[in-house]
């Protein structure tokens, strides 16, 4: 195998902005052939003014990719992409729709004059459960043949998918199961399980088949080998560097950082990805629109990916860069940092962001479980404040006024959720954020019943970083436990891991 330079890129920007204008490549376009299957497409030299933006910084044209127009909605999501068809990318128009949470729920690709529909079915947390497709130009979608394409497999996170490809015609399922009293037939090979690294990058997928291998000429199976369906490597910012199985004919739906590939837009594998909050191009290492959280991170370019540290951080949804490995304890903290330099290359400062690990799945009023993940301080309070446990703690502390008492609720389920969370081993950070969450939930309910404010508009950021408030919450909690009658169990509930929680053998620590 012979190596060589594939890219030697120079980035040019519009004056006094962070907006990329065009890229030049010192390596000629003929210097890289796109891999054995021609699906690895790098960036080649571009003409001046290749990238065009609207007034607020959203990309609206990419001339090198034959994208003539991108329409954005007021929520920072792409509604429609218009492009000129090519032999490798035949799509001329791509439209998207979203649910109230901003998750993509449909896609319509017009290619060769025919519309190709895809619908995404999601759960309450936005996880993709299944996809359905239909093709045709009839404006009455009821006349099109609907097919279920995929179903997704989950444990605590996504494990893979099952390729279904079954017609949904309203009739009985056309599933055949044979059993003769001794044996039954079972079709394998439709499942794909993800093998990922610490960044969530999908490095390979394997099926539910296995191949027996004998050794020494024996007719007996010595061991089994997996059925590897796809395999690929990535450059640091996400472009695919190598396909280990280029002729498999299978392109997996997810790739770098575990995000969904939008292969219809630019051709090739993973050249554009949906991160939820924004759209990403891994060849350039930039998002297509301004970071909605840019006001909180003024030291970053608003188009950067993962704090420009893709080996250490992931970009969960196009927002802040987060730690790349899971935590081990509720409330565990970890910092991400980034060094910054001026235009002369002189070091100027290091910026840090502190994250908190939420591990315990808590139920909300609808029965949904909170997601295990790293959260900012504000985000940690937000996710805890949705839980029944926070409502129960608010009742324990007497934080609900008379009118709001019914909203707080003090059911047995709420108490069980509180006991589950408090018994999981909370450190100081988890305890103080939990108290802040209980107060946020109670205050929102109290204000709502008084007509002052809608619960959904309550801003918990005012509760963060206020030491007096957190101490007051801990003191209230301590007083409530001390005065609880016949409550050895209740007191034990808040006797968290010694040395790590708010309470130890010596009692309340503030």
UniProtKB/TrEMBL annotation:
Region spans: Disordered: 311-337
Write down the InterPro entries for this protein, in alphabetical order. Rhs_assc_core, T6SS_VgrG/RHS, YD
Instruction: Identify this protein by name.
Output: RHS repeat-associated core domain protein
The organism that produces this protein has a lineage beginning with: Bacteria, Pseudomonadati, Bacteroidota, Chitinophagia, Chitinophagales
Residue ranges with Low complexity bias = 324-337
Signal peptide positions (record): none
Q: Give the matching PANTHER family.
A: PROTEIN RHSA-RELATED, PTHR32305
């Amino acid at each position: 195998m012979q190596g060589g330079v594939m890219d030697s890129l120079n980035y040019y920007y519009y004056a006094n902005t962070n907006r990329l204008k065009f890229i030049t490549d010192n390596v000629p376009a003929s210097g890289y052939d796109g891999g054995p299957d021609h699906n690895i497409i790098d960036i080649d030299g571009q003409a001046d003014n290749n990238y065009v933006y609207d007034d607020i910084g959203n990309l609206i044209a990419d001339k090198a990719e034959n994208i003539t127009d991108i329409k954005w909605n007021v929520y920072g999501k792409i509604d429609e992409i218009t492009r000129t068809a090519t032999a490798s990318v035949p799509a001329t128009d791509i439209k998207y729709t979203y649910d109230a949470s901003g998750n993509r729920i449909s896609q319509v690709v017009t290619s060769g004059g025919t519309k190709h529909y895809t619908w995404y079915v999601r759960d309450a947390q936005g996880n993709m459960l299944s996809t359905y497709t239909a093709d045709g130009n009839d404006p009455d979608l009821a006349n099109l043949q609907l097919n279920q394409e995929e179903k997704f497999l989950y444990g605590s996170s996504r494990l893979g998918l099952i390729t279904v490809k079954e017609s949904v015609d309203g009739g009985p399922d056309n599933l055949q199961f044979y059993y003769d009293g001794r044996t039954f037939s079972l079709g394998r090979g439709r499942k794909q399980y993800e093998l990922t690294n610490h960044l969530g990058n999908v490095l390979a997928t394997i099926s539910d088949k296995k191949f027996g291998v004998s050794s020494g000429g024996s007719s007996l199976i010595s061991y089994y080998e997996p059925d590897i369906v796809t395999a690929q490597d990535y450059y640091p910012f996400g472009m695919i560097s190598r396909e280990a199985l280029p002729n498999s004919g299978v392109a997996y739906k997810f790739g770098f950082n575990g995000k969904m590939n939008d292969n219809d837009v630019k051709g090739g594998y993973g050249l554009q990805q949906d991160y939820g909050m924004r759209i990403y191009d891994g060849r350039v290492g930039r998002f297509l629109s301004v970071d909605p959280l840019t006001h909180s991170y003024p030291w970053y370019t608003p188009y950067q990916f993962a704090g420009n540290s893709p080996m250490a951080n992931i970009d969960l949804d196009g927002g802040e860069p987060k730690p790349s490995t899971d935590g081990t304890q509720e409330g565990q903290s970890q910092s991400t940092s980034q060094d910054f330099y001026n235009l002369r290359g002189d070091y100027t400062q290091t910026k840090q962001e502190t994250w908190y690990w939420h591990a315990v799945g808590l139920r909300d009023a609808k029965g949904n479980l909170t997601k295990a993940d790293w959260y900012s301080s504000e985000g940690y309070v937000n996710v805890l404040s949705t839980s029944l446990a926070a409502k129960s703690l608010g009742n324990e502390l007497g934080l609900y006024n008379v009118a709001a008492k019914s909203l707080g609720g003090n059911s047995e389920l709420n108490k069980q959720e509180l006991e589950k969370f408090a018994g999981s081993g909370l450190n100081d950070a988890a305890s103080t954020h939990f108290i802040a969450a209980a107060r946020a939930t109670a205050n929102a309910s109290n204000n709502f019943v008084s007509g002052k404010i809608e619960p959904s508009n309550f801003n918990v950021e005012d509760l963060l970083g206020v030491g007096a408030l957190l101490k007051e919450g801990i003191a209230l909690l301590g007083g409530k436990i001390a005065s609880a009658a016949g409550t050895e169990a209740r007191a034990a509930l808040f006797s968290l891991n010694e040395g790590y929680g708010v309470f130890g053998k010596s009692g309340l620590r503030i």
